[in-house]
């Protein structure tokens, strides 16, 4: 763990790439990656693109048996969807082979190579119709571990056939443009995140003129159409956790601070811009600093039904486990019918919990047709919802697609060698 934190400290003088996460949030995700990789050998890599919502989840294994657990030795490294019919996967056909980008224009029935020598094989879809990838080059400056890395963000609007690097400009813009999204500008670890609006058509990132009055921790990965959510803390020493919501793509903001002591992390999820859940990971005052990560922690859930203006506590019986000690916004999403879905990750292995009564009670349930014990590796978010109405999951050998989140179709991805 010391080595990981040392590397983060070393990067303090290097501008980070554009991201939806603060440095602390990235650090938390990296630490969780480190723990899971050591704790679990047999893994199924799962990423979810959740849009309109999950109308029903089932837990009965005798009704829909889960697919066999994969060993993580297949070709699929990442997957993304820019809409229901256009799917993409980063693959590597063999050890030592270069990664390639595959694309499907028919919902996963057939695949073609879109990009040879596709770097680390990671691809994302931050907005409908847009693919995003990050490349790295070595800079002139050096640190303890060698030359410092410079990261470049590239977007594709033609299904991964051609790419354009995003450029940061100084001129402010009033709102996030169509096909765009919100994220942090490049910044050093000791600096505050400044929100920028990304315009993939123009190929640029521009500072947002109206910034929410909070120290930004992360931009929630939710569909931009009903509104955008940002989590963080109130400015000042010992600031309370806070959430900000914009219904008009960044023109105006509504900020709410949670008057809760000892909050370790805050996660927020919403699908319609009105109903939303906040999970506060709180620590008791008398917790032994040398105790395990989850010792003395509890999950406190709050609900809003007015777009973040007011919040009320739910889950009176504390039925939602604290898991590994932290929740971030990528661990949770809200379905169209109001179902709150949460991915629990701890040493027992990742598992799903849901609430269909506005957070009054949470129960363990597995979505039909998905692996019993999904395991997420790397820094990718387990739940993504940037593309409305699309559900996508992947393991080492296939992409799983669903139109409604209830029934899933397994779509094998060819191993390009």
From TrEMBL:
Query: In the UniProt record, does the keyword Transmembrane occur?
Result: yes
Q: Record's superkingdom?
A: Bacteria
Q: Which residues cross the membrane?
A: 39-57
Keywords, A to Z, come to: Membrane, Transmembrane, Transmembrane helix
- Put simply, this protein is called Uncharacterized protein
């Amino acid at each position: 763990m010391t080595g990981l934190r040392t590397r983060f400290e070393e990067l303090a003088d290097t501008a980070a790439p554009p991201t939806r996460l603060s440095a602390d949030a990235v650090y938390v995700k990296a630490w969780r990656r480190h723990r899971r990789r050591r704790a679990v050998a047999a893994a199924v890599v799962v990423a979810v693109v959740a849009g309109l919502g999950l109308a029903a989840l089932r837990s009965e294994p005798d009704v829909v048996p889960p697919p066999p657990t994969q060993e993580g030795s297949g070709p699929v490294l990442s997957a993304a969807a820019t809409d229901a019919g256009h799917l993409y996967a980063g693959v590597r056909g063999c050890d030592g082979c270069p990664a390639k980008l595959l694309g499907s224009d028919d919902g996963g029935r057939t695949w073609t190579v879109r990009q040879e020598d596709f770097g680390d094989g990671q691809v994302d879809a931050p907005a409908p119709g847009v693919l995003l990838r990050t490349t790295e080059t070595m800079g002139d400056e050096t640190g303890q571990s060698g030359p410092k890395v410079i990261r470049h963000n590239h977007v594709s609007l033609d299904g991964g056939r051609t790419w354009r690097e995003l450029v940061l400009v100084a001129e402010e813009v009033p709102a996030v443009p169509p096909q765009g999204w919100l994220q942090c500008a490049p910044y050093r670890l000791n600096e505050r995140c400044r929100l920028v609006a990304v315009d993939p058509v123009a190929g640029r990132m521009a500072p947002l003129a109206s910034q929410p009055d909070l120290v930004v921790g992360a931009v929630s990965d939710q569909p931009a159409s009903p509104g955008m959510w940002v989590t963080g803390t109130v400015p000042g020493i010992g600031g309370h956790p806070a959430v900000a919501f914009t219904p008009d793509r960044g023109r105006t903001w509504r900020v709410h601070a949670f008057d809760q002591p000892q909050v370790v992390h805050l996660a927020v999820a919403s699908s319609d811009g009105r109903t939303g859940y906040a999970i506060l990971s709180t620590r008791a005052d008398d917790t032994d600093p040398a105790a395990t990560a989850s010792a003395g922690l509890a999950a406190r859930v709050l609900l809003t039904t007015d777009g973040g203006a007011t919040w009320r506590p739910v889950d009176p019986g504390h039925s939602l486990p604290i898991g590994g000690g932290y929740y971030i916004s990528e661990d949770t999403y809200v379905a169209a019918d109001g179902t709150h879905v949460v991915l629990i990750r701890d040493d027992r292995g990742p598992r799903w919990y849901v609430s269909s009564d506005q957070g009054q009670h949470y129960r363990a349930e597995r979505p039909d047709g998905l692996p019993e014990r999904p395991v997420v590796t790397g820094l990718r978010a387990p739940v993504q919802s940037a593309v409305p109405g699309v559900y996508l999951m992947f393991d080492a050998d296939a992409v799983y697609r669903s139109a409604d989140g209830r029934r899933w179709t397994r779509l094998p991805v060819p191993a390009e060698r």
